[in-house]
Specification:
By secondary structure, this protein is mostly beta strands. The chain is 10% helix and 48% strand. Strands 3-4-5-7-8-10-11 form a seven-stranded mixed barrel.
Length: 177
């Protein structure tokens, strides 16, 4: 229960922190190809290992008034990927991590939860430069969101520990608030 509480507090903290910043997108691209990602799924390669979350373990939420899109998935072993796009304007396109304006508009995180202690890797991080992107190819506020993502994240407890999140894609139903 303590692990879940820590994980919940971390998740709330990440969302709250990301609300403080704006997002910017690159308009020259109409989003990513989700390939063979089935409906209700988020998948990726995490430092070479397969990650897949589906069903009730994968979700997308959109807060229209706050202009925030959150894409989230947890697999059966307690690993999770979360992407937050702040100042999201319901359009397709490419959002860089970080966005190049000096603010943190897009946050990507990877979490390994366990009873012995959870580890969290986050992008962007201090001095990271451009280390990833999220491409939205389809979005409907009360429909679905589809796209691709990749990012390099740094461990919150060890600045020399990184995870490469590659070949990420999602095809999720959007819950709007």
């Amino acid at each position: 229960m303590k692990t879940f509480r820590k994980f919940s507090l971390l998740l709330i903290g990440l969302i709250s922190f990301s609300l403080l910043f704006n997002s910017c997108r690159d308009d020259d691209d109409d989003g990513g190809d989700t390939g063979d990602t089935s409906a209700g799924t988020i998948k990726a390669k995490v430092s070479g290992s397969d990650f897949k979350a589906d069903g009730q373990m994968a979700m997308a939420t959109y807060v229209a008034q706050g202009k925030m899109l959150t894409i989230y998935g947890t697999d059966m072993s307690g690993r999770a990927i979360q992407i937050i796009i702040n100042n999201y304007d319901s359009s397709t396109g490419t959002w860089k991590i970080p966005n190049g304006t000096g603010s943190i508009g897009v946050v990507g995180s990877y979490i390994e939860a366990s009873t012995s202690g959870s580890q969290t890797w986050v992008a962007p991080y201090s001095g990271s430069g451009e280390i990833g992107e999220v491409k939205i190819s389809e979005f409907a506020a009360n429909g679905s969101v589809k796209g691709t993502f990749s990012f390099k994240a740094r461990n919150q407890n060890d600045n020399s520990n990184f995870k490469e999140i590659k070949e990420g894609s999602f095809n999720l139903t959007v819950k709007s608030y």
